[in-house]
Request: fold
Amino acid sequence: MNSPLVIAVDCSTTAAKAIVVDRTGRVVGDGAHPLATASPAPHWFEQNAADWWTATDHAVRQALTDVDDLGSVAAICVTHQRESFVCLDADGEPLRPAILWMDGRAHAEARRYGTERVELLCGKPADITPGLYKLLWLRDHEPETLSRSAHIADVHTYLVHAMTGRWTSSTASVDPLALLDQATGDYADELLELAGVRRDQLPDLVPTGTSLGPLRPEVADGWGLAGSVPVIAGTGDGQTAGIGLGVTDPGSAYLVLGTAVVIGSETTAYLPARAYRSMISATPGHTTVETFSSSGTYLSTWFRQQFGDPDLAGAPDPALERDAAALPVGSERLLTLPYWNAAQTPHWDSQASGVTLGWQGCHTRAHFYRSLLEGIAFELRMQLDGLETARGERVEVLRAMGGGARSALWTQILADVFDRPLEVRAAGEVSALGAAAIALTAIGEYASLPEAAAALATTDAVVEPRPWAAAAYADLRSIYERLYSTTRDLLHDLHDLSLGDHR
Reply:
């Protein structure tokens, strides 16, 4: 008998990706379709929500063309970009473009409404990222949008509705919107009242791994699938990245080197702290804790677009990587605070911005590029230290994935700055693999999600820290960790400066 196959979809910020895997994690089909992001005003980032489904549909169809026996497909599970949401009318049509996780329009709302009480309830320090503050922005700037909304849907909810007709999502998928009470796993009436939304506008909640019913017949027929293929409730792409890397216990952590950079681990209880954001875990009884910075590969891509080879249009540049790798540790005393998209963990400061310190005539664009990568690494080390201190437990195993994990230069910098081995999974769709583990557990192929995660996770390489480089980076970190506090007031004054129109 053929092994059952599952479809796993990762609808991320830049593309929808689909893989078809068997119970061992072997990929037998894959597909992808890009997503376009609009920026209609500075720091605004929006998408057409209908594209979420169009891209997913294209990716799944492409992945299934490689599958010989479509009758073996036993389930589908979705993971997705978190915090992003769309407001829809009663017919499921968008009332405005979807607002994305990296959208910065709600910085004033985060400062005004992000009280200790709100942070304690939702488990997320006040920041521009959680959906709560963008809903508050809509409440104050587009009240008619909220009043006309029959449904407020995160990406998971939107795709589940397209597949099943149900307005249902997992608690772990909706939780990044910051409308749930971490202690109960249900919507917090206090947060709903603050945001100006009603329960009936929000999806019904079920645990991750719950069957949400079969694919609608027209969807199944369009994909060439016979019989009743259940849709399994998934979770956000950060949590599924951890599952895909086999991170299911407090002694290990996942490092996502994507558009944003994230360090995540598990706890067996809700331990609120500003050293991380807390999220409902895909594992029952656990809480996922994550540090977060929105300037990850976004920053290296920005550099290549602005200062790199124009023919590459921001794509990875082997010559630039080679030149930066040839430079000494510390970029010859060029130090960068990588807050191009404000500061998240541990400062949660929407008024912060980037600083590069130490310019001299010897510096080149390769120095600047390496300094950006080192600055993100310093920030991540500071975040890991804070997570370990707040949680009271050391991370022994650190596993990395994402686009940045394909850079030999950056992964070596990270291993040196962390001063511990870095297990790297650079190939494949790791978040989608985590969704596949959820689906395989749901259909009974594994007894538990940790068992499935351990069976599917693989490592491409282990990058060892170099003792001499780790020592040099430790000296630089002592300066880096003072850079934000030293420049904070200046950055705030600069942020609030109104220059007017002097044309």
About this structure: The mean pLDDT is 94. The first strand starts at residue 5 and ends at 11.
